[in-house]
Specification:
The structure holds two protein chains of two kinds.
Chain A (H helix, E strand, L loop, with lengths): L1 E2 L5 E2 L4 H22 L1 H9 L7 H24 L3 H30 L7 E3 L6 E3 H20 L26
Antiparallel strand pairs in A: 1-2, 3-4
Chain B lengths: L2 H26 L30 H17 L3 E2 L2 H9 L1 H5 L2 E5 L3 H6 L6 E2 L5 H14 L2 E5 L7 H11 L7 E4 L2 H7 L23
Parallel strand pairs in B: 1-5, 2-3, 2-4, 4-5
Classes of the chains: A mainly alpha, B alpha/beta.
Chain lengths: 175, 208
Amino acid sequence: MSTTMSGQRGSSARWPTLARWAVGGFFLHSGLTKAMHPEYFLKMIRQYDLIQHHFLLNLTASLLPWLEAFCGLLLLFGVAVRGTALVTSLLLGFFTVLIFSFTVGVRERTGISFCEIKFDCGCGGGETRACEKLLQNCLLLVVSGVLIFLRSTWLSLRFSLGASPRPRTLDPTPS
Amino acid sequence: MNQPKKIVLEALLVIGVGSLLGVVANALSPRGLALRRNYFPDAGALPSSSATAAASASAPTLDAAKNSVSDRLRARGLQALDREAVIRLFRDPRYAQGLVVFIDARAETEFAAGHIPRARLFYHYRAEDYLPKILPACLTATHVVVYCSGGDCDDSEFAAIMLRDAGVAPENLFVYPGGFNEWSRHGLPLETGATHHRESGGTKGRSP
């Protein structure tokens, strides 16, 4: 059993922390890359033809990268882990469906085989094969999803926002 | 409170704080987006370039994509130039006289990596920075040729629309759909480096 810096108790298993860092690092990098180039991200999300109104499109392009980076930081430092993992899972699920639909659309229009299609999905990594991107997203989604259910507090600053901290020391002798 | 409810509330808090952070960061960042600005004018009723995108294609598909691009340009009231026409204008003596102007609608890093010689940069996402510098030359030119990367890039079209809205006569405005990728693929002259031209027009200090 391990205790967080805020006194919360949980499992001391280390691999969930490594998984948390992997997902957190990915989101921090991806978010910051897009936040530094908002016009690029704006162009990328426009290609999906999901949002027509320019205000909503601009809002999404300006907010989403920072939300991703924020989630990345929270996971790296182990703050609000399960809630953040829920957010990253939802984001990953949505992006995966979006990329899959877009790729299917390109395949139907052009006849190119699914795994030969390459495009810049706006994920911060430039042009990649759709198959590789989908596989990467699915793996991250599984890891992120698992983090929602685990209670590993090793090297977490504040694993859960809602739980009240337990006292660090208990007086063993009854009065 | 049960655990799932706590997790959902935590997630909502993360989304709320993260979104607020995004609003503040976007407002403070010099590269932040202007939320109320329409960066893609005249794009609403038309399919985006993604509808004509082909990452790699066979010839019949490429022809279909080209026809789609032409249709889209026509619908936006823009004139297209093919590569041969662009080359003729590039070699026209009026180019050196400033009566023919080439406008590069790509980002600064792409422009610096290579562009059509003596082309001027107009990154329409930062129109307020670039438009005052290029508009005088465009207003006096008989031919203004706007290009970007080519293929499914439609930044050249939005840049051309902005120039038209700024007063450049539509009959003098042209879009080169093949773009820089087609230009460089055919071994045509190119130049590297950032723009150094004076604000009133003319160019200076460009590396050959």
